[in-house]
Design a protein that fits this description.
Length: about 290
């Protein structure tokens, strides 16, 4: 299979996995606090990745560990908590929609900080995708007056973190395999996550049925939505551009809408139009 087909397959698989992550966060918050959820998510992912990728750690040169630490911080650690906190006040669907700002930030950071080259068509694609994203947001706010959209800024910060992460990987870690990078990331995060879990009193709390069910959702989120997804995402970064890789965030809302509807979240006709506009943006931003 050639690279062109491979990158599209990875993009679709990632959209299915990460599009389902937002509803898992929502369900996890039933029995866990945002900080507990973020920490447990990281710990589950770390255990899984260390089990399958520990032997790859010697492949990381000593001088590369600072970039492993940075990509760990921006790629998973900070966003894991920001999204959990944000979803206490905004819906899982809106969180997924706002996540679509990642390619815009990736493009801007790539041009102005990392000095990467982009075609004019990619810029148009990102802008069109952003317009679709805005259409989704504004058409949804009228139906969700009970939500606090100030918390949306936490998602915006998370998208900047994601954009920084993909550019760091593309520029400084292109010679390392996705499994090596991902395992290194979670080795760095494991101890801080355990400290946060202890700080929140997780081990002293009563493990009610709600808590146990929430933990089962976060187990899926940690292993599949974080561990496995990060491996294939870093593979996508290596075989494509940062803009194309982060274009997965354009497809994520479509999957998230499906889960949101099943969970009682509404979908307005204009939001469907916005999703179509987003797909157009993905196509244009990925063309050479």
């Amino acid at each position: 299979m050639n690279v062109k087909h491979t990158k599209w397959i990875i993009l679709i698989v990632l959209s299915l996995i990460w599009g389902s992550s937002f509803i898992l966060i929502k369900k996890g918050l039933v029995g866990l606090s945002p900080y507990q959820l973020g920490a447990v998510r990281i710990i589950f992912a770390a255990i899984f990745l260390i089990a399958i990728g520990f032997k790859t750690l010697p492949n990381i040169p000593v001088g590369k560990w600072k970039f492993i630490a940075l990509t760990s911080l921006f790629g998973t650690f900070i966003p894991a908590f920001l999204f959990a906190i944000a979803e206490t006040k905004i819906s899982s669907t809106i969180g997924a929609v706002l996540n679509s700002l990642t390619p815009v930030n990736s493009l801007l950071l790539g041009i102005f900080i990392f000095k990467l080259d982009y075609m004019r068509r990619q810029v148009f694609g990102v802008i069109i995708g952003l317009l679709g994203c805005l259409l989704l947001i504004f058409s949804g706010t009228a139906d969700h007056m009970d939500q606090n959209y100030y918390y949306a800024f936490l998602v915006l910060i998370a998208t900047i973190c994601y954009a920084t992460n993909v550019n760091l990987i593309k520029k400084y870690l292109p010679d390392l395999t996705p499994l090596t990078i991902t395992t290194g990331n979670f080795v760095v995060q494991l101890i801080p996550a355990i400290i946060i879990l202890v700080w929140t009193g997780f081990f002293e709390m009563s493990f009610t049925p709600d808590v146990k069910l929430s933990l089962s959702y976060i187990l899926i989120l940690g292993v599949i939505g974080t561990g496995v997804a990060n491996i294939i995402f870093y593979r996508l970064i290596h075989i494509s551009s940062p803009v194309f890789a982060t274009s997965v965030t354009y497809l994520i809302p479509i999957v998230a809408f499906f889960w949101g509807m099943l969970d009682g979240e509404s979908l307005a006709p204009l939001q469907i139009l916005g999703a179509f506009v987003i797909l157009v943006g993905v196509y244009l931003s990925s063309r050479k």
